[in-house]
Amino acid sequence: MPSTEEIRTDLADIVNEVAGVPASDVQLDKSFTDDLDVDSLSMVEIIYAAEEKFGVSIPDEEAKNLKTVGDAVAYIERAAS
Amino acid sequence: MSRSTVVVTGLGATTPLGGDVASTWEGMLAGRSGVSAITADWAADLASRIAGQLAVDPAEKLERVEARRLDRFSQVAVVAAREAWEDAGFGWGEDNPVDRDRLGVSVATGIGGMHTFLGQWDAQKERGPRRVSPLTVPMLMANAAAANISLRLGARATVHTPVSACASSNEALSDARDMIELGRADVVVAGGAEACVHPFTVNAFSQMQAMSRRNDDPERASRPWDTGRDGFVLAEGSAIFVLERLEHAQARGARIYGVLAGAGITADAYDIVQPDPSGTAQAKAMKRALAESGLEARDIVHVNAHATSTPAGDGAEAGSIREALGQDTTAVVTATKSMTGHLLGGAGALESMATLLALHDRKVPPTINLDDPEPGLGIDIATSVRELPEGDLAGINNSFGFGGHNVAVAFTNQYASNR
């Protein structure tokens, strides 16, 4: 089971790959849209890539509630446990 | 309403001959072939394994995230548009003096985002529905290249994508000229883009028996009017113009290449792929381009022909050129597809660019590989660089497409800054 920090780091790499946001900016308290300027289609792409990376399912109705990096990391931790 | 004069103030291109206009034009004047073998494993069992592949990967000229959000056909269009825009004296992504509400885009394609279309279907089949990119639709749509240029320039007048197969980008130039003449825009970024060198597309054209199979000698495969021709060579790339109302260009002291003087558009209504052997509608397109330009047939000193190196098309076009310009026309004719291959929806704009540069530099690039011309053509085909005379010059570029589309575009060197 990866640690919170390991999940955050891997997720940061995905956000960087998809949206070009520097990985170091992808911290738990950051909002994807308001702080990191990730647009809606890029957000969908990040969710799909995270599903594949972490081997979890993130249904579209759940993905809507993942506002911050911390929300996403917590969801992935729960889903993977 | 009196018609406006539409001038060319910027050019951009990325082609099998080079990653910009200068290297492409230099390659044409040197008679260099941009056709090469497709070395990827997927080509091994195809009947045709050659193509005019880009000299420079467009992704190298784009930010990484920008490149991954654009299909290859939009990548080449954005790269060429940036060169054209900067060539016109404007800054990319900076404030510039063009009123955004008077700035249009008219950029064509024959097919659209083929790599995205097929690649994402592969992803769905092989890895499931959740693996399809949410960017698939905006990447594959045929208007994606035009829309992405509009986004980068803030262009808010008409943003438009004509689709008429291999005539598409000449139609885009004609439509752009109309936008300016009808008073809907002062500046229009116009041209075409295509990037479909993909296993499926190469095979599909090959299955039509339309493509050259001279796999052992790629540089000699595209040979318009030669008796040994056996089909066209698929190619990828983009050519983009900045077109501008004359007074707008003069007011800002812009460098002018020449005038997009007129266009003629007709259709064969004969067959979905075969050109009408009578060439009547092709000739009518050229005559309409002359009439719209206020030019006489004898004014035309140069024709860049559509001539794709297919057995049926090239001879018919020679006849239609004579019908339009006179049986005794002395116009110097060339087929630059002999060097670039066939860019489909990018072909018209690239060859219009070659036509304009020939008038501007007074040099007609050669038709290469014309070792044994088909008898009875009756036109003067350049097989080496040919000088054009001093003074006023006018030329025509022809583009014809599957579906029976014929678009002839006329240029002059009037107002050219180097005259």
From TrEMBL, chain A:
Pathway: Lipid metabolism; fatty acid biosynthesis
Domain Carrier, chain residue ranges per copy: 5-80
Domain of life according to the entry: Bacteria
One cellular component term from this protein's GO annotations in UniProt: cytosol
The entry's keywords: Cytoplasm, Fatty acid biosynthesis, Fatty acid metabolism, Lipid biosynthesis, Lipid metabolism, Phosphopantetheine, Phosphoprotein
GO annotation, biological process: lipid A biosynthetic process
UniProt subcellular location: Cytoplasm
MF term (GO), any: acyl binding
Positions where O-(pantetheine 4'-phosphoryl)serine occurs in the chain: 40
PTM field: 4'-phosphopantetheine is transferred from CoA to a specific serine of apo-ACP by acpS. 4'-phosphopantetheine is transferred from CoA to a specific serine of apo-ACP by AcpS. This modification is essential for activity because fatty acids are bound in thioester linkage to the sulfhydryl of the prosthetic group.
Database matches in InterPro entries: ACP, ACP-like_sf, PP-bd_ACP
UniProt keyword Lipid biosynthesis present: yes
Pfam families per the UniProt record, alphabetical: PP-binding
HAMAP family: Acyl_carrier
Family from the record: Belongs to the acyl carrier protein (ACP) family.
NCBIfam families assigned: acyl_carrier, PRK00982.1-1, PRK00982.1-2, PRK00982.1-4
Functional summary from the UniProt entry: Carrier of the growing fatty acid chain in fatty acid biosynthesis.
Protein name: Acyl carrier protein
UniProtKB/TrEMBL annotation, chain B:
Pathway: Lipid metabolism; fatty acid biosynthesis
Keyword presence, Acyltransferase: yes
Domain (Ketosynthase family 3 (KS3)): residue spans on this chain: 3-413
GO biological process, one term: fatty acid biosynthetic process
Ranges in a coiled coil: none
Protein name per Swiss-Prot or TrEMBL: 3-oxoacyl-[acyl-carrier-protein] synthase 2
Reaction(s) catalysed by this chain's protein: a fatty acyl-[ACP] + malonyl-[ACP] + H(+) = a 3-oxoacyl-[ACP] + holo-[ACP] + CO2; (9Z)-hexadecenoyl-[ACP] + malonyl-[ACP] + H(+) = 3-oxo-(11Z)-octadecenoyl-[ACP] + holo-[ACP] + CO2
MF GO annotations: 3-oxoacyl-[acyl-carrier-protein] synthase activity
Keywords: Acyltransferase, Fatty acid biosynthesis, Fatty acid metabolism, Lipid biosynthesis, Lipid metabolism, Transferase
EC nos: 2.3.1.179
